[in-house]
């Protein structure tokens, strides 16, 4: 797989726009805590360093209402803080970043009119430099950095101990070599991510992240049952001759769900950021019915699955998924997931 694929485009039935309320609720569940951390720990005048333009960037913004409400909420806090610090006449710009394949047209068509900020798209991978040195005052990223830059190579070699036959992701019963392959790729990606941000974020500037994750010491992500469900359907499709077993063996979802300990170590290794806040939490989201859960999985993973298996096969897979929604409900129940909470880590960092 070349790069992790963007979410489903447009604003139709299967789009990320229409199927991302879980991520919306996850981010808004920590909004107040982020606001408090920003109000208490940051000095806008210092981070501006004489500039009259405040720049905020959303890394992995995707398409749909989530990025718009996240940016508005952060700007509201910044404006509040500006008033408190007696700063007037600032201009605000929001830079919306995502991969080049992201549906920026739908995103920009849906931006509110009028609005209190200038806007621009910055297409490209957040694992490389995106912005000029010290030009960003606040970087934000929600439900994005768990996407690896690529599938770890070891997982795709039949002669490797990390050959992940029959599986499309990892869990606590995966071979050590599989877990290691995922962990090593995540570390390399995070080194690149923090390295690039350290150059782009102005001294005193802030980075806010909401990352789907696990408690310390836990391997299996609670939402990972979705991958098990997809594995069952893929296995049926192999038995029926729709796809080859080797296609399944070769396919791996390029996601890693870290714990606080992992993220803390990576931030400390980079050395350019002070950790203001880093907390794991289960954030309550609205009740997710099995069919809505399947729509969410489709909006997020259809692109990367279709890249590998082909669009026709993956359309068929999701038709089957809907037909098996009771089985999905049973899998969720047996994993103790009622579809009402999302496991995530909230991070607020200050550029030293
Ligand atoms: C689940 S969506 C999250 C969207 C939005 N931030 C939210 O909270 O709803 C993840 C987004 O991260 C983007 N993404 C993944 N890897 C990326 C990369 N290397 N560079 C930029 N964006 C990336 C995907 O294209 C996708 O739009």
Q: How large, in whole angstroms, is the Cα Rg? A: 20 Å
Task: Please tally the helical runs, counting DSSP H or I stretches of 4 or more residues.
Answer: 12
Which fold does the CATH topology of the domain at 21-220 and 254-287 and 340-351 refer to?
Rossmann fold
Give me the strand/helix succession: HHHEHEHEEHEHHHEHHHE
Order of strands, main sheet, comes to 3-2-1-4-5-7-6
| General form | globular
| Structure classification | alpha/beta
Unique bound compounds: S-adenosylmethionine
Count of extended strands: 7
Percentage of β-strand residues:
15-25%
The named CATH superfamily of the domain at 21-220 and 254-287 and 340-351: Vaccinia Virus protein VP39
Low-pLDDT segments? none
Per CATH, the class of the domain at 21-220 and 254-287 and 340-351 reads Alpha Beta
Main β sheet profile: 7 strands, mixed
Folded structure, characterized:
The structure is a single chain. By secondary structure, the chain is of the alpha/beta class. It has a domain at 21-220 and 254-287 and 340-351: 3-Layer(aba) Sandwich (Rossmann fold). It has helices at residues 21-29, 31-41, 44-48, 65-84, 104-109, 176-200, 225-239, 245-250, 260-270, 290-309, 311-323, 325-334, and strands spanning 53-59, 91-98, 118-123, 136-142, 201-212, 273-284, 341-351. A 7-stranded mixed β-sheet has the order 3-2-1-4-5-7-6, with helices on both faces. Helix 10 packs antiparallel against helix 11 (311-323). It is globular. S-adenosylmethionine is lined by residues 4, 6-7, 20, 23, 27, 60-62, 66-67, 97-99, 102, 125-127, 142-144, 147, 149, 300.
